[in-house]
Amino acid sequence: MPITIADVAARAGVSKTTVSRVLNGRGELDAATEARVRRVIDELGYVPSARAVSLARGRTGVIGMLVPSLTWPWTGQVLQGAVDTVESGKYGLMLFTCNQGDGSMRQFASQVDAKAFDGLLVIEPEGTLDYITELHAAGLPVVLIDDRESRPQFPSVATTNRAGGRQAALHLLELGRRRPLVVSGTPGFGCVTERTEGFTEAFAEAGFPVPAEALLDGDFTLESGRAAVARAVAGGVEFDALFAHNDLSAAGAMQALGEAGRVVPRDVAVVGFDDVDLAALTTPPLTTVRQPLREMGVLAARMLLARLAGEPFPTEPVVIPTDFVVRGSTAPQA
Amino acid sequence: MPITIADVAARAGVSKTTVSRVLNGRGELDAATEARVRRVIDELGYVPSARAVSLARGRTGVIGMLVPSLTWPWTGQVLQGAVDTVESGKYGLMLFTCNQGDGSMRQFASQVDAKAFDGLLVIEPEGTLDYITELHAAGLPVVLIDDRESRPQFPSVATTNRAGGRQAALHLLELGRRRPLVVSGTPGFGCVTERTEGFTEAFAEAGFPVPAEALLDGDFTLESGRAAVARAVAGGVEFDALFAHNDLSAAGAMQALGEAGRVVPRDVAVVGFDDVDLAALTTPPLTTVRQPLREMGVLAARMLLARLAGEPFPTEPVVIPTDFVVRGSTAPQA
DNA sequence: CTGAAAGCGCTTACAG
DNA sequence: CTGAAAGCGCTTACAG
């Protein structure tokens, strides 16, 4: 029932080889022959089967993308950038998440082993970097998004986490804040280390080193922001500013501050990271370090596509700088 | 270099047929033979090539999913539910969006024609329902998410949009509100019609029909919520309540209300739709109709997987009811 | 400029 | 219980 290249060949009175040549634009073809074959293709509405093409060519035409969770507010932006780019490169995008823990990774691994895609885009999922590194070493083209300095030999797209942390610090210092609380993201992520370092270095250089008790581990969730503030307040830590590693935990922190009777920005000036939609909607609106999320997705996908087209990977991580967006949560106090 | 079924067969001293039988658990096999083949498979780390399997079997093992945009805050939830389910069904999920308009749809269509997936999950993208209907009619198993009453013959997962609209209305009526403004989603979507109808019917039944001037078209964006309120205020429309078709436009509406000097909930009680994370974080927190987003993704994927496993589709749309979440934006006034 | 044939790596009747 | 052979629908040397 479904028409194949053989049907086209028969109807056009040529060999399958010739039809294939027309399809792929390879070799010199008689113009009349080519026109005739094209006409038949149109008449029949023939489209080559992706299954057969991929087996014959030894490539799938699919790019895999592994993402930690789709419910994080910024994942959508990166993903959208990647999907758009992959799509215009005539590839398909196969999506995987680590949402179900080990089960997910097993499923993902089985698709890798089955060679279900030609290249991989990864937003580093907690604790799988070693596995991804193996894949890369085994020859699967991989581009990592975000986690920059942990494996410099890895093709990756990053943003200026360290500079972003520094921007946040300089802004708070300028406002006269001297005792910041830092609510970090999940420990172990390269971006987490960098953001904290950029931030604390700037404070230290200004003569106000951040004490260890003011550095609190979070995990990028709303709840972790709340919990960190609650812990700090309960522990008697004094602070007049707060830097969170993402907007979501900053929003959680602001809620907890409100519950603790601290007014933002009067008592505590708050800076987040990411600039997701939510940031403009908190009360007060959140000052934040803007990550070029969509752009990172686009660039990572472009690098991978270029690689699959035969070009070499860049040897250095590609870095897209962060922006700084000032809003009400750090409004200067009269 | 990559090992094939032939390598396994040779090393185990059996035919490829036998290896295939072990792999797929088909036919009676001598226990010793099977054990030997399994051992060789393990030793060699052999995994069948997805490309070859799909060509031989005539199926891809992939499910396509078409989504309007990944940057809408609720898409992630539905998608996550679908991905998790598809994954545990041993299928892959190929993601498509309509983000680039016609170009996207062309790319999507070419993958459909190439039979790059066995079944399709769709969150109805504006204006492509006819095309999807064709695909369904042409034999591609399709499950639609959300847009319920526009094509009753379509396998779909929906939620109680009409009942949700009614819940919102009854809640506002109970609070003594009589002149609601409705900020609808993109016109033409089935859910939009239903939400408005459920809402206006309840008001009419209570003796307070909603005038046409209070029904404003939006498009689910933050900006459309702002714009609608601005229009109503400028037009002199009087209102003491607002029902928005999603949380994002409700948030936009609340911003515009603030700018217009109207206090929520004192002057205007606001109800949204969806219950995305954002809803709990607006000021005041947003009362909203909760959609079972993740559950809808899970169920739609299950229906499709069951269908691909040979079971028939349910003949009726499957409906998961909405919930109603009361928060500060409709707090009773003393 | 064009075609016959082999091959991609599996599955599946068909035989035994 | 097991295997030889054909077939899935293309691409790609190899010949002419």
Automatic annotation (TrEMBL), chains A, B:
<dbReference type="InterPro" id="IPR046335">
    <property type="entry name" value="LacI/GalR-like_sensor"/>
</dbReference>
<dbReference type="InterPro" id="IPR000843">
    <property type="entry name" value="HTH_LacI"/>
</dbReference>
<feature type="domain" description="HTH cro/C1-type">
    <location>
        <begin position="3"/>
        <end position="47"/>
    </location>
</feature>
<keyword id="KW-0804">Transcription</keyword>
<keyword id="KW-0805">Transcription regulation</keyword>
<dbReference type="Pfam" id="PF13377">
    <property type="entry name" value="Peripla_BP_3"/>
</dbReference>
<dbReference type="InterPro" id="IPR028082">
    <property type="entry name" value="Peripla_BP_I"/>
</dbReference>
<dbReference type="Pfam" id="PF00356">
    <property type="entry name" value="LacI"/>
</dbReference>
<dbReference type="InterPro" id="IPR010982">
    <property type="entry name" value="Lambda_DNA-bd_dom_sf"/>
</dbReference>
<feature type="domain" description="HTH lacI-type">
    <location>
        <begin position="3"/>
        <end position="57"/>
    </location>
</feature>
<dbReference type="InterPro" id="IPR001387">
    <property type="entry name" value="Cro/C1-type_HTH"/>
</dbReference>
<protein>
    <submittedName>
        <fullName>LacI family DNA-binding transcriptional regulator</fullName>
    </submittedName>
</protein>
<keyword id="KW-0238">DNA-binding</keyword>
<dbReference type="GO" id="GO:0003677">
    <property type="term" value="F:DNA binding"/>
</dbReference>
